[in-house]
Amino acid sequence: xxxxxxxxxxxxxxxxxxxxxxxxxxxxxxxxxxxxxxxxxxxxxxxxxxxxxxxxxxxxxxxxxxxxxxxxxxxxxxxxxxxxxxxxxxxxxxxxxxxxxxxxxxxxxxxxxxxxxxxxxxxxxxxxxxxxxxxxxxxxxxxxxxxxxxxxxxxxxxxxxxxxxxxxxxxxxxxxxxxxxxxxxxxxxxxxxxxxxxxxxxxxxxxxxxxxxxxxxxxxxxxxxxxxxxxxxxxxxxxxxxxxxxxxxxxxxxxxxxxxxxxxxxxxxxxxxxxxxxxxxxxxxxxxxxxxxxxxxxxxxxxxxxxxxxxxxxxxxxxxxxxxxxxxxxxxxxxxxxxxxxxxxxxxxxxxxxxxxxxxxxxxxxxxxxxxxxxxxxxxxxx
Length: 383
Ligand SMILES: [Zn+2]
Hints:
By secondary structure, the chain is α/β, with parallel strands linked by helices. Helix content is 38%, strand content 12%. It starts with a helix and ends with a helix.
């Protein structure tokens, strides 16, 4: 236990302040190879039962359906951050994960079946997960880039980092691609931090609107990974994530689900963070905090009602927690978020807090102006 801890960089003491001289240095990882994952439902897919079943499902919708998880998600974020740069944030390219790194959370037979799809178009699952010719490399880069983001903070090159990746990962299970996910990026990064980087205990915070069924499955019996997952509850996709799903065996209690009703927003998220997440983290004492950051809880994606200020406030809580618990080491990995405006602005709101801006208190926008207006009008109405 202490021996593994000793692998941490000198100066990155578990309880101490971060060793980086510039405390708010943030690295965002972006790589154009991830744009080559572009399933096109008009393209011919590998023939088989899956193709037939998916096509009958899609034709039954009665409306045109496009693959929602598309390359413009990443380019929209990149363009927004070019238009409105966040001071203190620098960009680095990603890295492709190796088979060995992926095999820490996926079976070898699953990996081989995915690798055989290199250069092809195929449906993988009835919940419409598909690949195009560039998808396998894109997924390798997504997982490897999550690892690179972790290495950057462990090496002390940045206090925090954000892996802007796709395809997303948190629905991918050890043997199954689903929910637009091929490899479980955040799980691959957590397993790498444990196996190679000397992190004994890793906390994963999943604030995507959908439950991270794959991450839960992978670490279900693992006492050294604490998963806190707040999401819209069943029957919302994927249907898992109830309160009672707490882990099993040695991992009993290290899986914390907070299912919410439709349209729950900032107040519910922040209450859960302050009253459940923070106490759980203080009990668990993580060496590293990872965030499965989806931006589909934003009201634009029509499932929940989190605002930009809400994302910023949650980031502020996690930043303070990471500084108290693990030398500030905090790594974000992109999951969902399909409205390009709220996706881009949500990422920017997170980066601004990571880079040092004080997070606003949600629900307070305009309150100061109303107070000033009340003072202005007071003479007319209130004597
Ligand atoms: Zn989602």
